[in-house]
Amino acid sequence: MKRRLVAVVCAVLMTGCSTGSPSDAPSPSGSGGSSSSTLAAGQDFVVGGDRPVTVHVPRSFDPGRPAPLLIVLHGYGSSGREHEAYFRLRDAAERRGMITAYPDGTTDSTGSQYWNATDACCGFDQSGVDDSGYLLGVVAAIKAHGAVDPQRIFLIGHSNGGFMTYRMACDHAEVVAAIISLAAATFAHDADCHPSEEVSVVEIHATADKVIAFSGGSISGAAAYPGALETVKTWARYDGCGPAGSKSPKRVDVDADLSVAGDRSEATIETWSGCGHGAVVELWTMPGGVHAPTISTAFPDAALDFLLAHPKP
Questions:
Q1: Nearest-angstrom CA–CA distance, 237 and 246
Q2: Which pLDDT score, from 0 to 100, does residue 26 have?
Q3: SS3 string of 93-147?
């Protein structure tokens, strides 16, 4: 299963998978650290200590108007750089004035970069690396430069990166406003997740995913991950939503290779509303489809519009 995760990601990105470098001290140190803004429109800067990540500030950035922050998390065996190319979110984030960062996980014994995310994925070496603490530190280091809106901090991840978005929502619900997970799942055991407040969630999943199954499964003998529907129902319960989801007449175009009766917007939407503090939980289901879909040109706008519509209250 580990090899399949690597092979799928590498094949879809059509590039050599990055290996990165391990870290014994995942907490980053930011440059700057002043409470006043040191951010400059259209310029990049680096945070992350011995696991550096480049942070992009949009050209439209105004120091007088705090900007939303988007953290994008790569899949197993991939890298931040590769998933920047895969998700193609940068232009849509630029238009919306979002600060963006694509950090890297550490490297396991197979040479694959990964996130130590949930009890089901993907710290196969049981190294215990604190990726949750590292990413929280990355957020803090970016915020230390000033002009980040603390009510609009978002994460999106694919596969192992999707599992990591759930880990961040569980561990740091007071920081994370909303997450989008593509082809992943929440914790196998509810007791391992204790969100302190509501987080809006979208799980996007293909029904024919053979790597992280839509109905649930396990990876390399780890704890069994829940299915897509169970994942969103669990988060609907955490968020105090209504007991049943409602089907939307609208669809989302996630996979450029899929369509339904000639409609390129193939993914159905089921929404759990009535949640605490305005949170929303959604399941976007792609009929058929694969673990690493060909991201459509419509997806970046749909994903970022959802996130920006669900800030912290």
A1: 15
A2: 38
A3: HHHCCCEEECCCCEECCCCCEECCCCCCCCCCCCCCCCHHHHHHHHHHHHHCCCC
